[in-house]
Design a protein that fits this description.
mainly beta, Immunoglobulin-like, five-stranded mixed beta sheet, 1 helix, about 10% helix, about 50% strand, disordered C terminus
């Protein structure tokens, strides 16, 4: 009897793991580079695609969960998104990634991986995220051309 339990328990756990569902979320483009001067705001549109083998409803934030990131807090506006599956198990929406660089920001490159942060979703979310690179560039000095007198 003990041998049967020892064999059955791992099989049950393997079966449960194979039946677990997760919705896949991808971003297009998956790599973004923005050039922003201090005191300015940059933005770009990103298409968010969701798919799963089952019907799903996903509600998540993009920008609040970050990895390997040196982008200062407060620069990114987190996008609150939801995706509901269509009959084929796929859906998409467009979000705006908004970056506000403060006046006193040092020039340089700030980057990180933004991941969807799961909120009240009917399925777990799997995603490779979106890589964001923000190049803070000095403000361009206006060249003044004065006419010859």
């Amino acid at each position: 009897m003990k041998k049967v339990h020892i064999i059955l328990l791992p099989l049950i756990f393997i079966g449960l793991a194979l039946n677990a569902h997760a919705a896949s979320v991808s971003f297009d483009p998956s790599n973004i580079t923005l050039k922003v001067s201090p005191g300015e705001t940059g933005r770009t549109a990103i298409t968010v695609n969701g798919s799963s083998k089952t019907a799903y409803s996903l509600t998540f934030l993009v920008g609040s969960k970050r990895e390997k990131c040196n982008i200062p807090n407060g620069w990114l506006t987190a996008a609150y998104l939801w995706l509901d599956s269509k009959p084929d198990g796929k859906s998409s929406t467009t979000m705006n990634l908004i970056v506000s660089v403060p006046h006193d920001a040092a020039p340089g490159t700030y980057s990180g991986l933004l991941l969807p942060d799961d909120m009240r979703s009917s399925e777990a979310i799997y995603s490779d995220g979106v890589n964001v690179s923000i190049e803070v560039v000095p403000p361009q000095t206006a060249s003044i051309n004065s006419p010859a007198l």
